[in-house]
Amino acid sequence: MTKEELWQAVLAQIQLNISPANFATWFKNTEIISKEEYQVMVSAPNSFAKEWLEQKYGKAILKILHSLDGEVKEVKYMVGKAGLKIFKKALAPSLSEVGQLEFQEFKIDKETNLNPRYTFENFVVGPFNELPHAAAWAVSKNPGFVYNPLFVYGGVGLGKTHLLQAIGNEVTKETPKKKVKYIPSEKFTAGVVTAIRNREVESFKSKYRLIDVLILDDVQFLAGKEKTQEEFFHTFNYLYEKNKQIVLSSDRPPKAIPALAERLRSRFEGGMIADIGYPDYETRIAILKTKSQERKIELPEDVLNYIATNIQRNIRELEGALNRLSAYQKLQNQAPSLEIAKSLLKNLILSPAKVVTPKKILQAVAEFYDLKERDLLSSSRRKEIVRPRQIAMYLLREDLKSSYPFIGRRFGGKDHTTAIHSHEKIVRELEGSESLNDEINLIRQRIFSG
Description:
By secondary structure, this protein is α/β, with parallel strands linked by helices. 56% of the residues lie in helices and 10% in strands.
């Protein structure tokens, strides 16, 4: 495998696990510039991207590289001019082409950080996203005066970033004079850190207070970052008082974001909260057909049916499957048959069935509430631990049908009556709490997709 093929394979796997916006922000114009024995050298376009790749994605990159080439034991990064190579037609269609095809679609506006391909016109609406779509459309037509802030949440790969950027692109189209800014929360945090380091906090504040529509993606990553939360709180208040629009997204509702300052949580809950669920079969087919038209390809109905039936919980994976088939069609100049499609998509669709274990449930609950597993298993009576512990016990009972004595033993030798109490308490609360239902559904998504 050449350096170019190796890196494209890495990019394709990374792309399936992060938002398109983050993928474009941190991985565009990167490449492997040397591979000697056990060490790989990756170039980044600037020092900021280099630092981010090392600190945020370093472990994932090394793990993927090692899985692709067992000799790789170390990855180093440097700043340098990167040039992505376009694959020759002789190459067999593979995941590497998916990454390459996606890169060609990115044309990020440097001023707004918006990708023009994310619009309302190509956002497929179904029962699972009608409310957030309607709210987003209303916001784009009258920013600052309806649903402010707009808070959209849902699982990975369900279209949150698309919807947020569609708002920005629509506002920019209708009122070009308005200053729109889309930014992932991690990049906002990095900006705060840089401003503090360079003693430019006032300049940082001034820059954000000139914005008419501020779109912050993945706000759950603000959790635990006190200085970032403080700066965003002041920015939020300033923009809100001036009737400037604020749009936020997260993988969970505000109440479920751990280590989030109460004053920020109350601001987030002061506007419109809308969740995106899972697309039904008909909507998945509609998405596939819409994306096929965008790519100017036509796939047989049985192939579309196969994809829609086997990929049910992630729109990004639907697109990933479509990209593989699109690459094949463009290289072979013919549509793939069902058998060829099954072969091309076997790694994506026919992965081994995910086994749910008590450990996986504990890991998912702990991660969701920003705790350690040992916290759940401890005897602590702190509210921020007791509640997640009860939810973990509930999930062990409901999803694994574990006995109450087993659950008690799993949690540090507690009496079975503790497990019974926890399960019954959550069951009762679920009857009257929509937010608790949302939290448990989001945790289950982590359990069954992890």
